[in-house]
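Hi Y.,

Following your request, here is the sequence exactly as I used it, all 70 residues.
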Amino acid sequence: MNSYLLFKSLHLIAVIAWMAGLLYLPRIFVYHVENKEKKEATDIFEVMERKLFYYIMRPAMLLTWTFGLF
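Below is the corresponding structure, written out as tokens. Let me know if you'd prefer a different format.
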């Protein structure tokens, strides 16, 4: 397989994952603010925000830059 096409495909997949996270994170912030008086819901949304940012968005961003530069 052509390595250029492989890196291009991986770059595209990483961009899609990163953009999906960028679009979903503000929605979680809205849910968080709407339920700020409920402690249980606030804790759940904080965990969701943290996991989305650190486990999905950050690696996708790094992979996007890495494969984009290749």
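Helices lie at 3-34, 39-69.

Thanks again,
Q.
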